[in-house]
Amino acid sequence: MHSATSPQYPTETNFLLDEVKKGCKSGNPMSRNEIYLRLIQQFGNDGILGPPSEFCSVMKLNGGGISPALAQWVRRRLEGANWSIRKESVSQKVPTDWVLIALVASQKIRTKLDGCTVLINADEVFIKFFPRDTEFVVPTGTKRVGSNVASDAKKGCTVMVSAEMYSSKVLPPFIVMTATHKWHPC
Question: Which superkingdom, per the lineage (predicted)?
């Protein structure tokens, strides 16, 4: 029986906590998936170098996925060391009177469009080909969470979808794969 002060897998626990601390100090906190992958890379064993370790077998590191045992072990080790998994947060504040602001803006739009017979609503979204993780492991109690890693933020495409309001018809999407602006003065 192991006590709370001496975990069953001390080598693996030290590796986990060292990796998490390094990531946080560098401004690039690790995501849950990154933790799992690093543990599998470090302690997984396909049997070529001898039999797998007890940790490898119990956590099913060679199973091709993330076992519930591994997920629970990681969560417990992190909680025991005062780390938590948090969603990335932004520093923008939503106004307290946002409902009133939305209602006033809506009324202005409705007034301007009073005689309109064709109304097309369109929106564009940038779709990233290589999305990054949005949850990171940080010290418990951290208020703002972010990463300084330059992701492939510009690798993707812009998709514009639109629909005609009165007929409820969706128009074909417009996709921009490479955007360049050639501005010419009038």
Answer: Eukaryota
